[in-house]
UniProtKB/TrEMBL annotation:
<dbReference type="GO" id="GO:0016853">
    <property type="term" value="F:isomerase activity"/>
</dbReference>
<dbReference type="InterPro" id="IPR003719">
    <property type="entry name" value="Phenazine_PhzF-like"/>
</dbReference>
<dbReference type="GO" id="GO:0005737">
    <property type="term" value="C:cytoplasm"/>
</dbReference>
<keyword id="KW-0413">Isomerase</keyword>
<comment type="similarity">
    <text>Belongs to the PhzF family.</text>
</comment>
<dbReference type="Pfam" id="PF02567">
    <property type="entry name" value="PhzC-PhzF"/>
</dbReference>
<protein>
    <submittedName>
        <fullName>Phenazine biosynthesis protein PhzF family</fullName>
    </submittedName>
</protein>
Length: 261
């Protein structure tokens, strides 16, 4: 079975968010995929299956299967185009547990199509405020995450949250965001998800399915260039079109090999 490690939302090795991509030669049990993901020990391992003329995609962290994964989908799409399984002028359709996901290659950028995730304003739980240790400008909650806007990019970058407290919140994760200080970016963010076994995700695609509509309502625009201000960092282009989000990023292959078990 072919296996690649791909750095996503970047053009540089050792930057962006790494994902392993495994192209399955036959059907495998979920337990097998989980133990492989644990052994590889990257933020996400994506498993591509090709059944009845269709691509099927699943994502696993080292500790659990996750319902949706932007950077794992980006890496999987890049893998299929780079390996020649799909012509670069052709789109890719993935069948996943979260529905059908589509990918296109446009001027060297992998563009993914996801459903929008809408948050609603909520009263900030005391546990959330204590976990972050900062005063929020705004707190919203979607079906997956809390979204917290803070006053400045400096606060986002310097944030040192209490991960043990975040793990007690009844959500997938916490998004922290602000406007960007840099002209080339519209907003910055970070994403913490101990519920998925990820202390901080280096670059998270699905969180931008919530960030896009949020900043659209605040800035009255539909196209953004965003920066995820983690240790490795990454750039995401976000386009909001009604209830659909288009996420675009670049990728680079770091490792190619074979899975022998």
């Amino acid at each position: 079975m072919e296996l690649s490690i791909i750095n996503t939302f970047t053009e540089q090795a050792f930057r962006g968010n790494p994902a392993a991509v495994c192209f399955l030669s036959d059907e495998k049990e979920s337990s097998w995929m989980q133990i492989v993901a644990k052994e590889i020990n990257l933020p996400t391992t994506a498993f591509i299956g090709f059944l009845n003329g269709e691509y099927h995609l699943r994502w696993f962290t080292p500790s659990t299967e996750i319902p949706i994964c932007g950077h794992g989908t980006l890496a999987s799409s890049f893998f299929l185009w780079e390996k020649g399984f799909v012509d670069k002028d052709k789109s890719i359709t993935f069948h996943t547990k979260s529905g059908v996901l589509k990918a296109h290659l446009i001027d060297g950028w992998v563009q993914l199509q996801f459903p929008a995730i809408i948050e609603e304003n909520v009263v900030a739980p005391e546990l959330l405020i204590k976990a972050l240790g900062v005063e929020p400008v705004y707190v919203g909650k979607s079906r997956l995450d809390y979204l917290v806007e803070v006053e400045s990019e400096e606060i986002v970058r310097n944030l040192n949250p209490n991960i043990d407290l975040i793990a007690q919140l009844p959500v997938r994760g916490v998004i922290v965001t602000s406007l960007s200080n840099a002209n080339e970016f519209d907003f910055v963010s970070r994403f913490f998800s101990p519920a998925q076994g990820i202390i901080e995700d280096y670059v998270n695609g699905s969180s931008h399915c919530c960030l896009g509509p949020y900043w659209k309502n605040k800035l009255h625009k539909t196209d953004f260039t965003a920066y995820q201000a983690s240790e490795r960092g990454g750039i995401i282009k976000v386009k909001v079109l009604d209830d659909t989000i288009f996420l675009s990023g670049k990728s680079i292959t770091f490792f190619e090999g074979k899975l022998t078990v």
